From TrEMBL:
Residues 126-157 are annotated as: Disordered. It comes from Streptomyces cirratus. Residues 70-127 form the Glutaredoxin domain. Residues 1-19 form the signal peptide. This is Membrane protein.
Amino acid sequence: MMHAWVLPMLIVLSGSAVATGQVFSGSPCGAAALLLAFLALASVNSPLIFPRSIGAQEAQRRSLVDGRPVVFWRPGCKYCIRLRIRLGRSARKLHWVTIWSDPAGAAAVRAVNDGNETVPTVVVAGQPHTNPHPEWVRERARARRPRNPAAPRGRGR
């Protein structure tokens, strides 16, 4: 879990250094604005915004069971951030795989994007879609497969 905080912490430290330079050069208002911008950037790259990532194999296994899409992403990607923010609460229904920390996920993305690590790549029912529209992804997250009718539905009476 600590690895997920490395990029946001580096962004905050960089922002603090830049803001300190602005304060010493006599621009405290500029320093405050820059620090706020760096904090916003760090927050959208933090685990607070993105759901916890899992491995590609586990995500694909879970997707087969529950029908939820798998999203391959990487920290710092503006298109991934856009997708996550536009999905809102629906993002928690998806299986997220960070390609920077999962070699199998990176390989899966390269396999469907002509050798490029183009993200976000969303896999729905085994079909990859590169940088799809967030509304389309939201609809796929809602349209999960029905449960197996043979599976138990709850407590028997």
